[in-house]
Amino acid sequence: MSEQFDFLVLGGGIAGLFFALKAAEHGRVAILTKRARNECATRYAQGGIAAVLAKEDSIEAHVADTLNAGADLCREPSVRLCVSEGPERLRELCDYGVQFTRRADGLLDLTREGGHTRRRVAHADDLTGGEIERALIQACDERENIEFFPDCTAVELITLEKISRSAGRPNRCLGAYVLRPSGDIDTFLARVTVLATGGAGKVYLYTSNPDTATGDGVAMAYRAGARIANMEFYQFHPTCLFHPHAKSFLISEALRGEGGILRLKSGETFMEHYHPMGALAPRDVVARAIDSELKRSGDDCVWLDMTHLPTGYLIERFPNIHATCKAFGIDMTSQPIPVVPAAHYQCGGVDVDLDGQTSIPNLLAIGECACTGFHGANRLASNSLLEGVVFGHRAAKKAAELMDTPLDAIAPPWDAGEAVPSDESVLVTHNWEELRRLMWNYVGIVRTNKRLRRAQRRIEMLREEIREYYWRFNVTRDVIELRNIADVALLIVDSALRRKESRGLHTTLDYPDRDDSLRRDTLVTRGEIERPF
Ligand code: SIN
Questions:
Q1: What is the CATH number of domain 237-341?
Q2: pTM for this model (two decimals)
């Protein structure tokens, strides 16, 4: 079966929904989500959205903080554009019905997070992303031009280059093959296809991300021949709850913004030895400091102490974190919270220009799966929701310009070949576990060439097994996700091996210093990756 839309959006987080609302003014939009409509990383964003809103703040200060956190690898035009357009987009979020927390005088309550020199983070208690999803989905439901397809997983992008009969015509993206809940794989064609698939936290064993974060956009774009940038920069959030059943629940940086203190088991503080901003240093610095203290002491976790703050204030300001910790037997009003770093945010992604255009015509990418250059080598806290709305808006303008693209291409239906139902699903669960564990052990916060090469060899073997399985058996969501995290894992390792310096989130013992002669993006396209080093 084949569906046709003007705009096909893969992913229902802030960037995809914001794009859809704007694009719906120009044509029909389909939004595909792998699970429920709101099940995505945005929904779990706690801290908030950074924008210059306070009198004491300035565009220059937000630009400087972003460039500083990004370890001199941000693309400055992208930073200036995102920071300058941010306040207007935030007002539009309010118009779409997002209820941010307000002070008694009616102004937005602004919090602080690591790396920010001003209070500039608008939030909805400690459930900002959940509130944004609620409001934007409701706004989408009010538009006739927007249709949701939940429980649908994109398998592969369709490009003119791929379908042989178009030989000689300039390449462009035509849409995607999509696995429906029924198990059928259908063709979704569109004038413009938008990747808004989020990050790939599930590539690591411990992550703050939901199960949907399997790098689908990057993996599909890479396989389709798009340019991928800076995948070595994977951000680890310094403070996730350390508890065997907590699935790395995020303990927002806003806690440190409001005065939280990081302590060792002995009660001693340590961040003052690592950075003048102490516990509010940029995230890469705090995560490395915790990693180094844990390696030195052999402890399992460090502690985030909020007990000096008034009980009533903590419960009101952080209701979700308070309740979740309580459910795990930790009362943050009277005990420090045990915390560890976990994989949190993909700073690289599908390489795009300032309108979200990838290197494949009619394929746009926005949000976490895209690399706009805004985050450089390390993202500043709460800059990601901002990037999602600014680039969602800009990509919608670009998509409107592409409305004259004909919808006449005929893509062949999905060819299942000789595939049969699987009798070996154990391979999927085993490889899923092995891949994530080896990424955690060999490609984590501090790297070495030896460990990266070891990881590379093992990932190559796993990819070979997965490839074989993928062609032999009927495609399922689990196999699609496994194949995608394996491709993304290799892109991370490949990019990390290419960067022969330590910068931002990429720290390697073999090249411990920053080398400004190497200050450039790491760009990878298909075909290069199998090259030996
Ligand atoms: C947090 O609340 O600490 C996460 C915010 C972010 O990742 O930007």
A1: 3.90.700.10
A2: 0.96
